[in-house]
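Appendix C reproduces, verbatim, an entry submitted by the partner laboratory led by Prof. M.T., so that reviewers can inspect both the input and the predicted structure.
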Amino acid sequence: MNKEQKGNLGKFSADKEVNKEAVMHQLEKDAIIERQLRFQDLLISISTTYINSDLSDIDALIKKSLKQIGKFVGADRSYIFSYDFVNKVCSNTYEWCANKIEPEIDNLQNIPTDFITYWVDAHKQGEAFYVEDVSLLPEDGELGLRAILEPQGIKSLITIPKIKNKELIGFIGFDSVHKINKYQDKEKEILFVFANMLVNVIQRKENEEQIQAQEKKKEELLKNLSLQNEALSEYAQLVSHDLKAPLINIHTLIRWFIDDHSSDLLDENAMKPLHQVMFNVEKMDFLIKGILDYSTIDTLVAEDTSVDLNIVLNEIVQTLLIPAHITVSIQKNLPTLQGNVWKFKQVFQNLIQNAIVYNDKEKGLIEVGCTAKGEFFVKDNGMGIKSDYFKRIFKVFTKLESTSLSSGIGLSIVKKIVNFYDGTIWLESEVGVGSTFYFTFNRK
């Protein structure tokens, strides 16, 4: 072989080595890309599981995902820590260990953050803390990082911060015990995505727990309210009975006395105090009835029915004592509502009664009807109400004057029933001209 042939052969061998290295390099790149794609697929699978789960067993889901990610990256232990910066500690909350790897979760509770300042500082910057080879860490004393990691048999580790609403709340970590583990930049990025997923799923669990706690508290409040309403109803009925009995006796005795002595023994001045007592006894009776009606509105249990307001208003007009100088005009073809007939009757009856009591005209007129918008109204040409009283008149025991038999509860009952049906009530009034009460029923 001549010199030229030897030169060509050397060049061919060199080119062959270059091509071999290029092929190997390409295969290595392909393997890395293929691994990253599988890692992404795993993450998508875990994410899908989180999304489709009702989170009734969040602990099992998190532990399963720690195992899946840990095995994929070749770690021997994966875990989640929570930071408590108020008390300057951190604690291990979840952990997965490979076969023959001792768990450390019980030993890693309330660890002072001063022991791990290296990775706390990194996490606060939103960065991973990665130690490829623990044996290369400096010997910085028994409380140093190397002194903490080596007794656990850790050769490599990486920790990724968990951040919620721009606040550092903890980290996920992966320990390698059997061998030194290298993490590519793309793998670190995927681990950051996994950390965010954990934050979201834990946040979702916290939200659901808060909702459940609120629902439980709501149920307890409703139960207590129901018991209180029941007790109030029983108390109101008891008080009503106990108060009414002596009132009836007083009323009867005074009536007998007046009937027996009015014609011969007592003059008009002597009778006047007795009539005043009778008036106040009747007033007290109205007050007791009003309190009883007001206290039993919410506790009244009756099946809802179709209520024809034309029939209801007709019954009210027939049963009320309407003075001869007052005319009550009822609009025809009023709607039929779904609800409790007693409640609807109370609303119209109290408003009409109120319009009668406070009508000072020689010819009083009360109109009852419904607008095209579905707003009911009771209109009168009575005394009218100052605007300052518009809100106050719906409060219990509020009256425009104290000389009538009104209990001051009628309008309170009306508002309570309207509220029960998710409706609204308001009025328009002009002193000396009259008032119009408008109201709606929206529920059912």
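The mean pLDDT is 80. Additional entries are available on request from the coordinating office.
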